[in-house]
Write a structure and sequence with these properties.
single chain; 197 residues; two-stranded antiparallel ribbon; 42% helix; globular; binds zinc ion
Length: 197
Amino acid sequence: MDQINEFVDERQKAWCIQCGAGIADVDTNRDHVPSKVLLRKPYPENLPVVDTCVDCNNGFSPDEEYLHLFLHCVLTGSTDPEQHLDAKIARALQRHKKLRARIERSKTEYRTIGGETRCVWEPEEERVERIVVKNARGHVFYEYGEPMLGEPTRVRTLPLTAISASEREDFEYDGVVEELLGSPEVGSWMMTRVFTG
Ligand SMILES: [Zn+2]
């Protein structure tokens, strides 16, 4: 990943980008965007990081753990630790029995007309949403140099395979950030990219 140094106005960095607390008054952590639980090792070099307050950083951990395990269970097709090739995930599923049971409850099996058994997994949307919004705030701040402290007007999560071709085109359309936010903050990554291509 190319590293472009940002030189955003320091006054934009006065708050925790998640809760709006004055960053000078609280303990802070470096928070990775995207959340490390959404990545596989080896991690990309120069992973973006943003400062958040320790309370926010810790507060997201249970939801991140949930999402991490949930995604692994969906990909593996099971919450049974023995089915998981990733030893860390298998151990986590063994350790967090309640969480495992919650994930198991989100699974519905059904039979296809051809007689195959398939699964539908429905995640706990609020938990997923919190992590999506956290990451969105982190990305916007990192790229754009602009804290987005308000509540989002809309959050929608669904598998890429479940969206239509035109929705996917909209999702991947480069100009969408510009339309949403106006011009990037002077000195932000995005501004550098706009000018350097
Ligand atoms: Zn905070």
